[in-house]
Amino acid sequence: MTSQSLRAREKAIADQFTGGIPWLMVFWGITNTVIWLALWPLVFTGVMPLWLGFIIASINITMSYLPSHDAQHYIIAPKGSKLEWFNELVGHWSLIPLTLPLRTARITHMEHHKHANDPLLDPDYSTHASGPLHALWKTVVNRQPRATGGFNRYGEILQQWDSPAATAALNDAIISKTLFFGILAALALSGYAIEAALLWWLPRHAALTYISFYLSWAPHHPADGKGRYKDTRAFKSRMGNIWSSGMQYHIVHHLYPTIPLNKTPAAYRALRPILGERGCNLDNM
Amino acid sequence: MSFVKSLFFFGPFFFGIAFLAPLVAQVMLKLELQAPFALSPLAFGLIIGTVLGLVATYRGKWI
After folding, report:
1. pTM of the model
2. Which end of chain B is more exposed for a tag (fewer CB within 10 A), N or C?
3. What is the residue range of A126's domain?
């Protein structure tokens, strides 16, 4: 079979999994942030113990990225459609606990798709690591004040691009970061430092560690291949697919970014023979 | 943009005095810990927060 006909077959299969509103992602994105916001009055009024709030907040903030990820790709509603506002609403709303603006996430993520594993052009390349422990250490290193990777790398890239979209994304990031630390400081100076630390600051660090590890490092490891069939892999996670946020099948997302997250396992199973023929790294999945 | 860069450069220092200091003080009160040298929890928190913040600002990293 020629490469072209293989590609046509691949696309025909992928098309079966695209289209429609992924209501699971919409529900997830909206309720997750609602639950996180509800933790504050529940803990402040003593209805919920702080230790329980900390656990729930850590789960909430960890889960806040993926619904927005579907919105970044306009999966919830296509760009230019009547429901584009709904797509943007879910995208903005779901990211509130993570304090990562949608426009910043989107513009850098699209660049990641274009240049995955390119040391100079992939904004997420700083998560590249030799193994799991090194990957965890890199998440810590990338969050230091003058780190060259992580969100600092996003800021550097956005300044280099110097386009209206990049400027808007950079401004969003500056406002978001200032608001985050401003609110933390205001809470702390009002006598709620422990609550701020355990409902937002520490859970956000835990979430960024998980997100960097499972959503960025693991699906691209060893990050030495470039191109459509080489820059992402399928992998068997020790945590299973759900607890690794569906990333076992991330290769499907890089091939067809408009397939919703919850449909990537089925799409992977349908596409697997073709991916095998393409020589993709499928880790015996 | 240079103002913002300067502000963020000193971010760890601001974080140290505006968040870490009250956090240390409130944790001490919660755990009923005594600060050394008869310092108040807030004074002790300010010393810890300021020192950590200044060191992180100078080094560009917390750890």
Report:
1. 0.95
2. C
3. 19-226
